[in-house]
Amino acid sequence: MEKQLGTKGQAEKIIRKYSDMIFRIACQNTGSMHDAEDILQEVALILLQKDAPLYDEAYIKPWLIRVTINKCRNLSKSAWRRKTVPLENYIHLKNPEDKGIWDDIMELPVNYRNAVYLFYYEGYSIEEIGRIMHKKPATIGSWLYRARKKLKSIISEGGISYE
Q: What fold characterizes domain 95-163?
């Protein structure tokens, strides 16, 4: 089912629906709640400024993820970087024991971290992640494989078992 996003009200509904996801992605990419809030606002502005294209539900969520990741990359390249606040103060995990795993995931390179996050936390398939990140599915599969391998190494070096 397609929806037209030409009105402010329609854009607000989309932002309300996906703001938590946008914020989480921005947090895990920037490591700062303040930067994540700024990115959420920028993504909302981009959505409001669009020239009323037609979107369907399957398109808007990946588009928002792509825009969010791009905004995070732009911020990380920016010469004007603010002091960051520890991420663990702001990420609320379903299980408190997941904090150790989250800390380990945050040690991964950003592409691996995004692939892991989208695959395990947002439930996207490798093919869908490839479309979102404009990469071949084989690349995403390689990133996930390498991320799992690196996580296994991180966990075994720390002597911590999350099982």
A: Arc Repressor Mutant, subunit A (1.10.10)
Q: Could you say which residues of the chain have pLDDT below 70? A: 1-7, 51-57, 78-100, 158-163
Topology of 1-92 in CATH? Rna Polymerase Sigma Factor; Chain: A (1.10.1740)
Helix (H, G, I), strand (E, B) or coil at 147: helix
Q: Pull the structure tokens for residue 98.
A: 């997941």
Of 134, 136, 152, residue with least CA distance to 62: 134
Residue 144, helix vs strand vs coil: helix
Q: Among 90, 147, 149, 136, which residue's Cα sits nearest to residue 114?
A: 147
Q: Where in the chain is the domain with CATH 1.10.1740?
A: 1-92
C-alpha 148: how far from its chain's center? 18
Q: What element of type H or E holds 103?
A: helix 98-105
pTM, two decimal places = 0.59
What whole-number distance in Å separates Cα of residue 10 and Cα of residue 4?
A: 8
